[in-house]
Design goal:
By secondary structure, this protein is mainly beta. It has one domain: PLAT/LH2 domain (Lipoxygenase-1, Sandwich), CATH 2.60.60.20. The protein contains no helices and twelve strands. Strands 1, 4, 7, 9, 10 and 11 form a six-stranded antiparallel beta sheet that branches. It has a four-stranded antiparallel beta sheet with strand order 3-2-8-12, with no helix packed on it. Strand 2 and strand 3 form a beta hairpin. The mean pLDDT is 89.
């Protein structure tokens, strides 16, 4: 079972003079058909990417109740279980919310997960050990609500 705590997306915009991220992009994160989270790719006052720029955005899953958990004094981050692993079960949908072209050259995404492991030589000490897996999406695509400029959404299948 994979316990996913965080996902990041490093995005490279295209080389064309009009390339960039002028359109607001929403993200939906799914486990199989279950929607886990809806969010903005560029939160708050984050500047938009210009032509041929690179930036990393991320989402850390949070307990909706705001309650933290610890085991033997070790804080456990909130996570979503992926019983059959991430591959084939995680998908992230990027959705254009404006008609200015948003040109994505490529996206590299890291999916972070972890597990509790016992500390050798102790009776009840544990540590949270985090791992990550990297995925690359190289298809150059333009997102826009204007269908003459591109697609309204892009789904990343992990």
């Amino acid at each position: 079972m994979t316990k996913v705590t965080k996902i990041d997306w490093t995005i490279k915009t295209g080389e064309q003079w009009w390339s960039g991220t002028d359109t607001q992009i929403k993200i939906e994160i799914y486990r199989d058909n279950d929607l886990l989270k809806r969010l903005n790719l560029e939160p708050g006052n984050t500047p938009r990417l210009n032509r041929s720029e690179l930036a990393t955005y991320y989402w850390v899953f949070q307990n909706p109740d705001g309650v933290g958990v610890s085991v033997s004094g070790t804080a456990i981050p909130f996570y979503h279980d992926f019983p059959n692993g991430v591959r084939g079960h995680l998908r992230v949908k990027l959705i254009a919310k404006g008609d200015d072209a948003w040109d994505k050259d490529w996206i590299e995404s890291n999916v972070y997960s972890g597990e509790l492991k016992g500390v050798p030589g102790t009776i009840d000490s544990v540590v949270w050990v985090e791992n990550w897996e990297t995925f690359f999406f190289g298809r150059d695509i333009v997102l826009s609500t204007d269908s003459s400029e591109g697609f309204t959404s892009l789904t990343l299948q992990y």
